[in-house]
Design a protein that fits this description.
Blueprint: H1 19-26, E1 52-57, H2 66-74, E2 77-82, H3 86-93, E3 100-103, H4 105-113, E4 117-118, E5 142-143, E6 146-147, E7 150-156, E8 158-161, H5 174-177, H6 179-182, E9 189-192, H7 198-208, H8 222-235, E10 239-243, H9 246-254, E11 260-263, H10 265-273, E12 279-280, E13 293-303, H11 309-319, H12 322-332, E14 335-336, H13 344-353, H14 362-365, H15 371-374, E15 377-379, H16 398-408
Length: 410
C-alpha cells in the first residue's frame, strides 16, 4: 500500500446533534485579519508538561517517528483517537475528554461557536512565526479577529482519470459536470460522498454561470444553492460510485469500474504505486482544473477546558517545527504549513526519519510556497446562514446542505 495515508478512514458526514441551534451562533462569527494573540481568554504562559496529552486527529497526523520524538522530548504521553469525519471530531471534542483536535475547515466554526475550543495565544507557539503567511488569519481558523488554532497543512481535491479511456486529458471539471461530456462516462464516474461536495458544483458554476454571482462556494443563497444542487442531481444518473473510503475508490479504478472523478492524494499515489494507469490534477502534478478546486487546510485547536493545556501548547509548537511538519506532510501527502520544512535538507532528513523515499522537491510539487496556486483552492468551511455580505442571513446552512445531499443521491 502507498506510503500516503491521507483521509483513508473517512466516512460519509452526518448531521451533528443540535447543529441547527449551533448554526444560529455561527452566523454571527466571521473570519478576519489583525493580531490574533492579544485576546483575554487565551493562555498566558506555558509551564511544565502535565505528562499526558489526549488528541483527536485524522489518520496519519499523529504517528511515529514524530509521535515518539515528541513524547521523549516533552514527557507528554499521547493518547490518540483517530476520527473518520469532521462531525465525529466535533462530537468527540464535546465529550470534554480530549485536549486538542486537528480540525478541518468544515468543523472549526462548529467548535468555536459551540464553546468547545479556546482561543490560541500564538506568542506561545514560537514556530508559528514561520508558518506560511497565507495560512494565517483565515476564516476557518480566526473568528472576529481572534485566532483559534495553529495551521498544520493543506491540500487540494483532485480530478483523477484513466488516460487510456478519458481522452484528451481534461483540464476542466466539465468532464464530470457538463451533460455533453459526463454522459460519455455514464456509470464510471466516481465522486466524493459528502454534503461538502456541493461546493465543488458551486466552484464549477462560479466559472461557467457567472450570472449567478457566486463568490464563495460555501456562501450560497437560494438561487445559487438550487443551481448547484440541480447540477449534481443532473450528474447523479452518470455516477457509478459515491466514495467515502479510499479503498473502494482504489479498487474501482483498478478494475475499471471507474475511469474519472474526484479524489485525494492518497488514492492517486496508491494507484500509481500499484502500477495503475491514472493521471490527476492538483498540487502533486502542478495544476488544478481551470475553474479551481475545493480543498482543506487543517488547524490544531485546543479544548476550552483542556486537562493538559501545557502539553497541548508544546504539541502545537512541536508539530509545526521544521522537521516534524516535514515528516507528517510527506507521510500524509499534503503541503506543510511550516515554511522552514521546505528546506531540501530538512525534507531529505525528514523523509529518512519517516522511512520514505527522499524527495527534496516535495514542496515544489505540492506548491507549498506558492500563494498564487492556493488562491485557486477554496478551503472547506462550514456553510452558515450569514452570507458574509449585504445579503444577510439568506444563505443555506449545513443542515440545508445535508438535506440536499440526501435528495441528490435520491
Amino acid at each position: 500500500m502507498s506510503r500516503f495515508r491521507a483521509r483513508s478512514a473517512w466516512l460519509p458526514a452526518a448531521i451533528v446533534g443540535g447543529l441547527a441551534a449551533t448554526m444560529l451562533v455561527i452566523a454571527g462569527c466571521g473570519g478576519g485579519g489583525g493580531s490574533s494573540s492579544d485576546n483575554g481568554s487565551a493562555q498566558k504562559s506555558v509551564g511544565a508538561g502535565e505528562g499526558s496529552l489526549n488528541l483527536v486527529a485524522w489518520p496519519g497526523y499523529v504517528a511515529d517517528p514524530w509521535k515518539s520524538d515528541f513524547e521523549k522530548s516533552t514527557g507528554c504521553q499521547i493518547k490518540l483517537k483517530e476520527a473518520g469525519t469532521s462531525d465525529e471530531m466535533v462530537d468527540l471534542m464535546r465529550t470534554g475528554q480530549w485536549d486538542g483536535v486537528s480540525a478541518s475547515g468544515n468543523a472549526t466554526a462548529k467548535l468555536v461557536s459551540g464553546g468547545d475550543v479556546a482561543p490560541v495565544n500564538t506568542d506561545l507557539v514560537p514556530n508559528y512565526a514561520t508558518i506560511f503567511d497565507d495560512l494565517k488569519n483565515q476564516p476557518y481558523n480566526t473568528f472576529d479577529g481572534t485566532n483559534y488554532g495553529i495551521p498544520h497543512g493543506r491540500g487540494a481535491d483532485l480530478l483523477m482519470w484513466n488516460p487510456n479511456v478519458v481522452k484528451p486529458d481534461p483540464t476542466s471539471w466539465s468532464v464530470i459536470l457538463d451533460p455533453a461530456q459526463e454522459a460519455k462516462y455514464k456509470g464510471k464516474i466516481s465522486v466524493y460522498d459528502d454534503p461538502i461536495y456541493i461546493a465543488d458544483a458551486a466552484v464549477y458554476l462560479k466559472a461557467h454561470q457567472p450570472d449567478l454571482g457566486i463568490t464563495n462556494p460555501y456562501e450560497l443563497d437560494d438561487k445559487q444553492f438550487t443551481a448547484a444542487v440541480d447540477l449534481l442531481k443532473q450528474q447523479h444518473p452518470n455516477v457509478g460510485q459515491y466514495w467515502a473510503l479510499a479503498t473502494p475508490q482504489i479498487n474501482s479504478f483498478t478494475n475499471g469500474d471507474s475511469v474519472v472523478g474526484t479524489t485525494w492524494q492518497y488514492q492517486y499515489f496508491a494507484l500509481l504505486d500499484a502500477g495503475a494507469s491514472v493521471k490527476a490534477s492538483g498540487p502533486s502534478t502542478g495544476f488544478v482544473p481551470s475553474e479551481g478546486a475545493t480543498g482543506w487546510s487543517d488547524t490544531w485547536m485546543i479544548a476550552k477546558n483542556a486537562a493538559h493545556p501545557n502539553c497541548m501548547y508544546k504539541w502545537m509548537n512541536f508539530i509545526t517545527s521544521p522537521s516534524a511538519n516535514a515528516e507528517v506532510a510527506q507521510y500524509f501527502g499534503e503541503a506543510p504549513a511550516q515554511s522552514k520544512s521546505c528546506d531540501p535538507s530538512t525534507l531529505t532528513a525528514a523523509a529518512k526519519a519517516a522511512a520514505l523515499p527522499a524527495n527534496p522537491k516535495f514542496c515544489d510539487q505540492y506548491h507549498a510556497a506558492d500563494p498564487e496556486f492556493w488562491k485557486k483552492v477554496y478551503y472547506w468551511q462550514v456553510p452558515v446562514a450569514d452570507c458574509g455580505d449585504d445579503r444577510g442571513n439568506t444563505c443555506k446552512d449545513y443542515n440545508d446542505w445535508s438535506a440536499a445531499w440526501t435528495q441528490i443521491k435520491g
